[in-house]
Inverse folding.
């Protein structure tokens, strides 16, 4: 019944942006890669989020280091990949509404600058964004904040020679011999391999369980509003300074402080909210209302602009807001690259690099201790209810 | 009380019949409809209609008269249906002076109908190429001048009223081309006397206007410099592939095409209604014997649960009206529904969409007109790993534009080989200011209706 598919050095589970990045970097390192995706390329959260590559929203620490490494890699990818992945280093503008907010934003920016982020204080943000409301206290400009189209990027990365993509295939388990992986088992056959990378995003806990391991990854829902196409009125990624506090919060309650930005195609994107409500797909009108109100508050001209659509996705949340990158501590040959919450696109490139370096025995480009899969201990507990 | 017992969405045949039935049972009913005038697709399809030539006019006037027993909220576009106790309909009224409002009701009946289904072909984006629904709007007086040269193409019996409507409004119709060759012996029209009379009426009208009617033919390309000037018509094989050497051109300035209808399921999806396959295999709201959807206190009627014509819409609407008021329907109504459903299934089987239309496409034929996505880019997206319309949208922008895939969705689904999964949390564009404004100005039932 279980027939062998072609073998590969590495089997990557998930064809989202993280799986694609891992596959690409492994292939670049000379490994043969089979990608197993139960739905389609970008069928998970990657196709239901946005494409911000942000350093501005990260506090100094391991995640910011990862983001900076990733940003450099994204820039290289944008130059080397054949197709347009809509990479645009448009810069971010974080706006403070009060003197107190500006003070904490300025303090954050100082720490970020020490960690290698380019920042510039902007006394009058309307010099950069003429349609912004007046009466703000000030802003910080982050020229490195960039943009890609994640689905196109994932598809393009997966076209690299050395990668075979199997869509419509679900990983159901592993074959182990002496505690080491010898094959990945799917619902349509087994793939002989010595290494499996769990890049199943928000479903990574389920995949870990199927592989005999355990991870605390849970969904955190987000909604995005998309307007009718407009001439370019908004040039940067603009958001209110409250955003940084929201990202770091772990509460189940609703948090919104949307990034507002114009896109090359014309529509303005407003997103996203953060709520821990499981995989509930029901549209929340109050959440949409809040996103709209906050966008209109930043850019009053948006009042008369029509929203054409809204969509939602489920971020892969971890209790400490850090991604899980590294070798599983019990199952030999199993690796994890998941749990990137609201920054998986931004962090994908570095994640791919680190996993490829680990699998080929290379020296990691940065210290990965903070991302260790084993850091949560067992049994896994919900850090935040 | 600020809540309706029942809100019916849609004032087409299904919605009107539902409202009439529910109101007759004493329920406080609102009929919420985007259009300014009641009637939906069917009763709208004739100009300044005095009803003289309309087969179902008596039924319509009766249903329309029943509106005086309900609150008819005309010109109310529902942008989102929020399930709850009560359910909330988030609406927009007006256009330039748009304002938001809400309607609350314990029970909902969805009768949101269907929209025209198009198939792409080279030149279908030229001005002058219309859908059947677009042609309806035209002969209502928007710019169609007597002497316009029109061609009607597509598949299904509804091409006939489109052609006779165009002719009656002064156009010269140079042919009706139905891509199918429905077998006259199995043609089920005879089992339904009303339809047989209707069909005979249209046939007579075609003759009177000297309109040629060809089966097994299609318009496979439209041509023109900046607007429609001529079309290529070809004979098709059984699978709708053009037979070599049969192409000929017809000069025309108007082409109305229609390949059936796609139910509007946005609100059903908002409310959490399960979907199933309709008579022709495309998604519809799943309903039980009482027209109840899988969502609590939500019923569906008319094209929302299967494209089957005005009579089926009226019958299912009435059944939903009974069920939503907790009343038992007359057995005769159940028998009529069974008969109309058999008929709808037979019509769907006689007028399918066959795969060969894909051979009409060239690499640069636009599939998505809003985002200008050519066929070649759709094929690239499929090669890159898209397996349904959502994947196609992400990898090629197909369906991402203004119409949100309402025009190209069916064709895109055929090309990628998986059914559409309608998921549009916002069913009608809404201004950010109105969205931000929150729950303003809810509509309360008219005081007098509280009996
Ligand atoms: C509204 C919203 C906005 C966002 N905005 C941003 C942003 O601006 N910038 C940013 O960096 N990030 C953003 N994110 C977060 C980002 O989208 C995610 O972190 C990222 O997409 C995760 O990628 P992934 O590859 O890990 O997961 P996914 O894209 O979910 O991929 C995992 C894949 O694994 C597959 N899979 C699961 N189980 C199995 C199995 N058993 N067998 C085979 N396949 C399986 C799934 O089908 C899925 O395709 C946003 C998220 C949301 C929801
Ligand atoms: C050209 C043409 C010719 C036809 N000829 C025939 C024929 O000869 N015989 C026959 O039996 N059938 C015919 N039909 C089919 C017939 O029109 C339909 O079967 C019938 O109208 C279906 O009724 P309904 O009530 O389900 O939907 P509809 O009549 O489509 O009514 C749906 C209503 O819901 C409203 N609505 C939808 N969404 C929203 C929203 N979000 N907010 C507010 N309102 C909303 C719409 O505005 C519309 O008024 C024809 C159709 C066409 C287009």
């Amino acid at each position: 019944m279980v027939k062998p598919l072609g073998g590969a050095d590495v089997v990557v589970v998930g064809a989202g942006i993280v799986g694609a990045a891992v596959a690409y970097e492994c292939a670049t390192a000379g490994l043969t890669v089979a990608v197993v995706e139960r739905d389609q390329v970008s069928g998970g959260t990657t196709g239901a989020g946005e494409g911000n590559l942000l350093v501005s929203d990260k506090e100094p620490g391991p995640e910011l280091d990862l983001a900076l490494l990733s940003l450099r890699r994204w820039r290289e990818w944008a130059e080397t990949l054949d197709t347009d992945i809509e990479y645009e280093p448009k810069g971010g503008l974080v706006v403070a509404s009060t003197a107190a907010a500006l003070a904490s934003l300025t303090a954050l920016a100082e720490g970020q600058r020490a960690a290698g982020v380019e920042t510039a204080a902007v006394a009058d943000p309307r010099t950069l964004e003429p349609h912004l409301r007046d009466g703000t206290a000030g802003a910080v400009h982050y020229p490195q904040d960039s943009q890609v189209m994640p689905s196109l990027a994932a598809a393009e990365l997966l076209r690299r020679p050395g990668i075979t993509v199997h869509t419509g295939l679900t990983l159901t388990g592993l074959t182990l011999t002496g505690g080491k992986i010898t094959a990945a088992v799917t619902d349509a056959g087994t793939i002989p391999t010595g290494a499996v990378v769990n890049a199943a995003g928000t479903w990574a806990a389920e995949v870990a369980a199927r592989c005999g391991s355990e991870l605390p990854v849970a969904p955190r829902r987000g909604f995005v509003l998309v307007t009718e196409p407009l001439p370019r009125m908004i040039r940067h990624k603009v958001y209110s300074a409250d955003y940084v506090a929201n990202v770091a919060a772990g509460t189940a309650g609703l948090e919104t402080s949307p990034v507002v930005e114009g896109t090359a195609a014309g529509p303005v994107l407003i997103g996203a909210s953060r709520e821990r409500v499981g995989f509930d797909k029901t549209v929340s009108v109050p959440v949409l209302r809040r996103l709209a109100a906050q966008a209109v508050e930043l850019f009053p001209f948006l009042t008369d602009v029509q929203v054409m659509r809204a969509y939602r996705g489920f971020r892969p949340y971890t209790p400490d807001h850090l991604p899980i990158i590294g070798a599983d501590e019990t199952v030999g040959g199993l690796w994890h690259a998941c749990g990137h919450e609201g920054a998986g696109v931004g962090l994908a490139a570095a994640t791919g690099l680190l996993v490829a370096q680990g699998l080929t025995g290379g020296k990691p480009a940065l210290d990965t201790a903070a991302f260790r899969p084993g850091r949560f201990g067992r049994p896994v507990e919900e850090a935040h209810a | 009380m600020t809540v309706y017992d029942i809100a019916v969405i849609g004032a087409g045949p299904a919605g009107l019949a539902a409202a009439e039935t529910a109101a007759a049972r004493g329920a406080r009913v609102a009929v919420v409809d985007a259009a300014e005038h009641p009637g939906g697709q069917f009763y709208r399809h004739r100009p300044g209609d005095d009803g003289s030539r309309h087969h179902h006019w008596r039924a319509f006037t009766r249903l329309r008269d029943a509106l005086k027993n309900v609150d008819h909220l005309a010109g109310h576009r529902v942008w989102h249906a929020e399930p709850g106790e009560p359910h909330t309909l988030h609406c927009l009224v007006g256009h330039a002076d748009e304002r938001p409002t809400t309607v609350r009701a314990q029970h909902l009946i969805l009768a949101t109908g269907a929209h025209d289904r198009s198939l792409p072909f080279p030149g279908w984006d030229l001005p002058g190429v219309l859908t059947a629904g677009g042609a309806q709007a035209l002969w209502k007086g928007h710019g169609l001048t007597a002497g316009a040269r029109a061609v009607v193409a597509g598949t299904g019996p509804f091409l006939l009223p489109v052609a006779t409507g165009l002719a009656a409004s002064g156009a010269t119709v140079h042919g009706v081309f139905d891509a199918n060759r429905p077998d006259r012996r199995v043609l089920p029209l005879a089992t339904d006397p009303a339809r047989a009379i209707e069909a005979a009426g249209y046939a007579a009208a075609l003759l009177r206007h000297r309109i040629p009617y060809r089966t097994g033919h299609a318009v496979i390309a439209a041509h023109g410099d900046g607007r429609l000037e001529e079309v290529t018509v070809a004979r098709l094989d059984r699978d709708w592939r053009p037979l070599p050497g049969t192409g000929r051109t017809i000069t025309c300035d108007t082409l109305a095409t229609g390949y059936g209808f796609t139910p509007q399921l946005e609100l059903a999806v908002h409310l959490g209604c399960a979907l199933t396959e309709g008579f022709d295999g495309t998604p519809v709201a799943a309903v039980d014997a009482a027209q109840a959807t899988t969502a609590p206190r939500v019923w569906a009627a008319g094209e929302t649960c299967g494209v089957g014509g005005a009579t089926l819409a009226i019958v299912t609407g009435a059944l939903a009206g009974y069920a939503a008021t907790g009343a038992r329907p007359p057995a005769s109504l159940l028998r009529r529904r069974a008969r109309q459903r058999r008929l709808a299934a037979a019509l769907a089987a006689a007028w399918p969409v066959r795969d060969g239309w894909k051979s009409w496409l060239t690499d640069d034929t636009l599939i998505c007109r809003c985002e200008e996505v050519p066929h070649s880019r759709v094929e690239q997206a499929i090669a890159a790993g898209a397996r349904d319309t959502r994947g196609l949208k992400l990898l090629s922008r197909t369906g991402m534009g203004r119409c949100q895939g309402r025009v190209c969705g069916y064709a895109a689904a055929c090309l990628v080989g998986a059914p559409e999964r309608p998921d549009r949390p916002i069913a009608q564009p809404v201004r950010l200011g109105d969205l931000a404004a929150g729950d303003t100005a809810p509509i309360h039932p008219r005081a007098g209706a509280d009996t």
